[in-house]
Amino acid sequence: MKQKTDRHNADDLQHTDVNMTKEEHQDKHPMITGKKYFILLPGTSKPQEDIIRNVLQQIPDLEEVSTVVECDFILVFCIIVSRAGTDIDAAVNELNAVSETKPALFVVLHHTFEPEKMVPDSSHVTRMNTLTVDCLFSEDKFLDCVRNREALDRIKQCFPPQVSSSSG
Hints:
Blueprint: H1 22-27, E1 36-40, H2 49-56, E2 63-64, E3 73-79, H3 84-98, E4 104-111, E5 130-138, E6 141-142, H4 146-156
Parallel strand pairs: 1-2, 1-3, 3-4, 4-5
Antiparallel strand pairs: 5-6
C-alpha cells in the first residue's frame, strides 16, 4: 500500500537557498515545534537501533508515529553504501515522495573506523525545511567524535529549548 503524501503551503516553510555559502547553509535549520516523528529508512541498508537511539536521545519526549500524515517531522537515516551523492539523491527523492514540505532531519551515516576521517559534506541537500547532518559510525555504533557531537548539537537546535519547571 502506498503511503498518502502530505502537502502544506510552501509559503509557511523555511527555504534553503542553493546559492548560499556552506557556512550560511549550516546556520539555517528548520524549527520543529511538535514531538511526533516518522522514521524513513531509504535504501536496503538499515541503521542499527543504537544509532537511531543516539539521535532520539537528544530531544526528550519524542513520540514515533506510523504515518507521515500524523508526524510533525520526518527523521531520515541515509547510510552511504555506494557513492555519497547517489545515495543521498535517492534518499531525498524517497523523502519527497512521502512529503515534499514536512520538516525533516536528514542524518547521513558514513561507515568508518576512523573518528577523524574526512567524509563528503552532505550540505548540498537543498530541500525546504530540512537539516542535513553527517555522522560517522562503525559496525552498529556511533563513533565518539567531534563530527558526531556537532551534528547532534545542530539537531538539538531545531527544537525549542526545554523549559524546566520546578515544583515548590
